[in-house]
Amino acid sequence: MFNFFEEYFYLHIEFILFISGLICLLYSIYDKKFNINYFSIENIKMYILNAMLVFFIIGWQLYIKLPLLDINKTSIDILHLNNLFIFSTFNCYIKIFILVFTIIYLFIVYDYFKNDKFYFAEYIVGIYFLIGSMFLFISSYDFFIAYLIIELQAFIYYYLFTLLSKRVIVLEAVSKYFILNVFASLILILGISLIYGSCGSTKFIEIGILYVEQSASNMFTVGIFFFLIGIFFKLAIVPFHYRIGDIYEGLPLIVIIYYSVISKIPYLIFIISLLDIIKFSIVFYNLIFFVALLSILYSSLIVLYEINIMRILAYSAISHLGYILLSFSFNTLNGIVLGINYLFVYSISIFGTLLILYIIKIYNINNGYSNFWNIVDIIKFSKFSKMNYFITVMLVSFLLSFIGIPPFAGFFIKMNIFIEVIKSCHYFIFIILGFISVINAVFYLRLIRFLLFNKENDIKLSSWNLSLNIVFWVIVFCFIFNLSFFFFQSIILYKILLIL
Question: For the chain, what are the domain ranges?
Fold first, then answer.
């Protein structure tokens, strides 16, 4: 018998997020109409602090659920709401990671809205709804429910992308994003229709039980194929990546910081859940393997012809997503652990890199130089690289980590994946990955050369005090993590293995 309050216990986090978003939206409408100090710094701070308090309380609620471990210290999976959602220790850790990042991100949002006060409340409302939809997606255990939440996330991204945009190129980027997402949605719903037609259900648990007893039908195989293609469109990996460069180039940097770090996490976690019901067929693992390898190869080659920093980071994201999916395609628990570890390390590294670009943008605006978007090509950007030498050193460390140079974190996570490739006896793939790594090294070292040795018209900053800037200290944390990852990587890998 359905017990609403018992089932509500596992989804009350999501309810709180959506209700808080609605309350913030309604209050902002009233506040904007009747409060003459609506755009004051104090009022912006109040909205930001309230959001941080809500996220902290939710994070604490998730943390107190973590002791749901059995005697053998293995994680428990609890299905609820008629097997539509799953609650697990692993999902809790992912949600806590998203919340911690969001709280840090709100400090940056506050710094941004001190200079540009329009739509600050509406943007925070969008963050509420986005996190709520992400949490539902991470917990979803049904194809149709996942599709509905994916569409909800897409609408929220349209909202956030256009809210702070003041440039014509953004309209083009969002238009491409919308059109390709519509096409991806059609592919997703086609795949779900075929899955339901072959199984009579869209629930993971029922499909898994069905195909333990019998082999998968051709209709089900085609349905999963189309569904995975739709997910690949949403992840924007090769060959479904056509919008990603324009998105990174056109959107405001404050939006890109959140989008680049968080947007891919729910999809990758959902793929891990999906692997539980397609593990009986090697065809799907081969599809993931092929797409991953193609993404690594293509993005590593196309980036050689790019000079725009934001587009370079976009194609770099595709390459790193390829490595994550490659580790998932090994069809082993160790491969999934390595993929999650890679996702965690990459998220911190790209976060630090984008925060450095954000600092350069703020400095650029405050000191009356040309607009930030005119310096994002490599040569012009290098003129700003020596505004603070410590910032330059940290930026170089993140780039070296992307290459996979020791002793930075990128070396160890890539080395683990290479070892797994050798264990899987894919020696030819190992040679290809080694060749791609050399190509990446050539490109990033060229970029580092521009940053360190281009002496023409350098813009230096001797009076900039970074000591009390929260953004700076977040970058320092990312830098220290990147440099000292070797000492605690085994602890992280063991913890991921324990909660899976």
Answer: 283-500
